[in-house]
TrEMBL record:
Component of a transport protein particle (TRAPP) complex that may function in specific stages of inter-organelle traffic. Specifically involved in the early development of neural circuitry, likely by controlling the frequency and amplitude of intracellular calcium transients implicated in the regulation of neuron differentiation and survival. The lineage of its organism: Eukaryota, Metazoa, Chordata, Craniata, Vertebrata. The keyword Endoplasmic reticulum applies. It comes from Patagioenas fasciata monilis. Its main location: endoplasmic reticulum. GO terms for biological process: endoplasmic reticulum to Golgi vesicle-mediated transport; nervous system development. This is Trafficking protein particle complex subunit 6B.
Length: 158
């Protein structure tokens, strides 16, 4: 429980620190999102490497996505993804109905516009994990009502 609180505090401070620096003229908001996504990418690569070192090879893309939704998500966020959907053509939608990184700011609709900056790190986390498993992807996030969110993963064929 303490490690979860530390992770949430660290994440909130990373977001706040980057955007505070941008407001003081040290960067642009778009660059902040890119920096957060890049940090998440590197962390995702490292975590997947650690989590899969004793795991058998995955059969296919869907098997990898199931691993991300169950094992990876549970280790990082202490719960599984609530819903995984696919069109079987390289697009997957991961839905989390109570996303931990949004629960702190989900008190009202006025914070809905700030939600994307709290999701950039996680988009990178997913993309980095998939990258280390040999899947090149584009990951975007969408929030319609907080704290629920959807991550759309588009697999890029190599």
């Amino acid at each position: 429980m303490a490690d979860e609180a530390l992770f949430l505090l660290l994440h909130n401070e990373m977001v706040a620190g980057l955007y505070r620096a941008a407001e003081q003229g040290e960067g642009e908001n778009g660059r902040c999102t890119t920096k957060l996504e890049s940090m998440g990418f590197r962390v995702g690569q490292g975590l997947i490497e650690r989590f899969t070192k004793d795991t058998a090879r995955f059969k296919d893309e869907l098997d990898i996505m199931k691993f991300i939704c169950k094992d990876f998500w549970t280790t990082v966020f202490r719960k599984q993804i609530d819903n995984l959907r696919t069109n079987h053509q390289g697009i997957y939608v991961l839905q989390d109905n109570k996303f931990r990184l949004l629960t702190q700011i989900s008190a009202g609709k006025q914070y809905l516009e700030h939600a994307p900056k709290y999701l950039a790190f996680t988009c990178g986390l997913i993309r980095g994990g998939l990258s280390n498993l040999g899947i090149k992807s584009i990951v975007t996030a969408e929030v319609s009502s907080m704290p629920a969110c959807k991550f759309q993963v588009m697999i890029q064929k190599m």
